[in-house]
Amino acid sequence: MTDSASFLLGGGSRSAKFDNPGDSVTGTVAVEPEVRDQTDIQTGRILTWDNGDTRKQLVVTLDTDQRDPDDPEDDGRRSLYVKGSKQRGSQSLHDAVATAVRNAGASGLTVGGELTVRFTGEEPSQTKGFNPRKLYEASYKAPTGGEFLGTDQPVQQTQPATPVQQQPAQQESSGDAVATAKQLISAGMDDGTITAATGLDSTVIGALRAAA
């Protein structure tokens, strides 16, 4: 996914580097993760499996504290290309991130969540002539509320089991509406429900979410 500023100015985040065992990256998910086709680094051609299916990867952009001292324009954004075996226990990057999400009790990665990935070591490739396979571990802390994007596809946000008390039919004052909206945001309600309950515009609700 390319945001408007990156498209206009030609910017883009750097890839997170895992050159040596112990290297790690920690950051906040900055934009909604995107599933993309895997491509050959040298030719740019789309990679496929033996059965002809296109290989996929999840591109996750993190806001980190990492900076290149030689680049004053380095904003700290780093991209993770989550791919590899989906098999549990394989310690691929895919498995590590998926395991971290499950351990966090989340449905997937979402903007505002904090992700840490660490390169733990290597194991010899089972295919002669190929580089050793990198092994990873990860941890994830989900933000409160919001929709989640899983490693394969978006998932719908589930509504809380506790019903929301209906608001009075009469129009609320601006101050009361804002207070009510803040309470509903804390309860994990979606924008549509909050708009119906308070009459506030979605842009106002978005600003309240950002300030929460």
How would you characterize this protein structure?
With 212 residues, the protein is α+β, with helices and mostly antiparallel strands. The chain folds into 2 domains: 8-141, no CATH class; 174-211. Helices cover 23% and strands 22% of the residues. The chain has 5 helices and 7 strands. The chain has helices at 4-9, 93-103, 174-186, 191-198, 202-211, and strands spanning 14-15, 24-29, 34-37, 56-64, 77-82, 114-123, 133-141. Strands 1, 2, 3, 4, 5, 6 and 7 form a 7-stranded mixed sheet that branches. Helix 3 (174-186) packs antiparallel against helix 4. The longest helix is centred in the last third of the chain and has 13 residues, at 174-186. The two termini are 26 Å apart. Residues 146-161 and 166-172 have low confidence and may be disordered.
Main attributes of the structure:
212 residues; alpha+beta; 2 domains; seven-stranded mixed beta sheet; 23% helix
* Tally of contiguous helical segments: 5
Q: Helix coverage percent of residues?
A: 10-25%
Secondary structural class: alpha+beta
Order of helices and strands: HEEEEEHEEHHH
* Uncertain parts: 146-161, 166-172
| Average pLDDT number | 80
Give the total of domains: 2
N- to C-terminal separation?
26 Å
Task: Give the percentage of residues in beta strands.
Answer: 15-25%
Most strands sheet: 7 strands, mixed
